């Protein structure tokens, strides 16, 4: 978004100012339309249109999470790409490895979630990352936490393909707009509920009866993308103790890679 309008009307600075003023007017027009669309099917598209006046992105989607650990589709009608990759596989259980899902329990509702800030240190090396981000081409993601009557939810904006990650300026812009975005979204989706029948794998499924409680905790952190050092810090263990546990886990489960671990728990 930076530099739109540069060179128009003489000096680049003047052109940039005109571009910002135009986007400011369009933002107010479009966000007003979104407000009028609350409770109507067109609300998600109206909100998406308004947000595009602030920052560029390729996809807006959302998921809701009940307090007993069941995920449901909040807003994925316009998902780009293969639905099975982005939505069905996610709802089938892999959402328990999503840093945004973890963030619901770690951050206050007014926090704007930026994936690269909150993801574990080895997140990009995980099987979840390969299957979800690698396969769909998502390069960066920002999320708004929504507190609804029956569930919590996250509405996210993604950049994909050859696009650059969100800049610091993009993040500041969305942080400034976040209170209004949350206000409108929480009213539109206020009565969203989890599916009547449990269609998904509950968070508690990240466990195996062959492992001890501590070993299951370590498995969960490994699958989420934590290194041995990070696991040690989270569980207040020494890095060497974590490595010993890891070897024991792999031996008990008769596996030798994280990909096998992923498929054993979520395959």
From TrEMBL:
Task: Give me the segments passing through the membrane.
Answer: none
Sorted UniProt keywords: DNA-binding, Transcription, Transcription regulation
One Gene Ontology term of the molecular function aspect:
DNA binding
Domain (HTH luxR-type): residue spans on this chain: 204-267
Superkingdom field: Bacteria
Gene3D superfamilies hit by this protein: Winged helix-like DNA-binding domain superfamily/Winged helix DNA-binding domain
Q: Which GO terms describe its biological process?
A: regulation of DNA-templated transcription
Q: This chain belongs to which protein, by name?
A: DNA-binding response regulator
Source organism per entry reads Paracoccus lichenicola
């Amino acid at each position: 978004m930076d530099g739109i309008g540069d060179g128009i009307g003489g000096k680049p600075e003047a052109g940039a100012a005109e571009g910002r003023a135009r986007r400011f007017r369009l933002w107010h027009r479009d966000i007003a339309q979104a407000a009028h669309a609350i409770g109507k099917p067109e609300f998600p598209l109206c909100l998406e249109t308004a947000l595009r006046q602030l920052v560029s992105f390729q996809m807006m989607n959302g998921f809701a999470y009940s307090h007993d650990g069941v995920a449901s589709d909040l807003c994925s009608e316009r998902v780009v790409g293969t639905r099975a990759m982005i939505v069905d596989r996610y709802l089938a259980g892999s959402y328990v490895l999503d840093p945004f899902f973890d963030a619901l329990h770690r951050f206050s509702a007014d926090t704007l979630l930026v994936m690269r800030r909150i993801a574990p240190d080895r997140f990009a090396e995980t099987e979840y990352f390969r299957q979800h981000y690698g396969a769909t081409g998502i390069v960066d993601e920002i999320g708004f936490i929504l507190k609804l009557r029956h569930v919590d939810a996250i509405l996210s904006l993604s950049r994909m393909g050859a696009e650059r990650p969100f800049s610091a300026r993009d993040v500041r812009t969305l942080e400034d707009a976040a209170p209004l975005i949350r206000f409108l979204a929480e009213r539109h989706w206020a009565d969203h509920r989890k599916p009547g029948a449990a269609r998904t794998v509950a968070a508690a499924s990240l466990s195996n009866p062959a492992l001890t409680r501590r070993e299951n905790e370590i498995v969960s952190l490994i699958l989420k993308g934590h290194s041995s050092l990070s696991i040690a810090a989270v569980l207040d263990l020494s890095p060497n103790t974590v490595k010993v546990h890891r070897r024991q886990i792999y031996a008990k489960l008769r596996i030798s890679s994280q990909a096998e671990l992923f498929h054993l728990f979520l395959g």
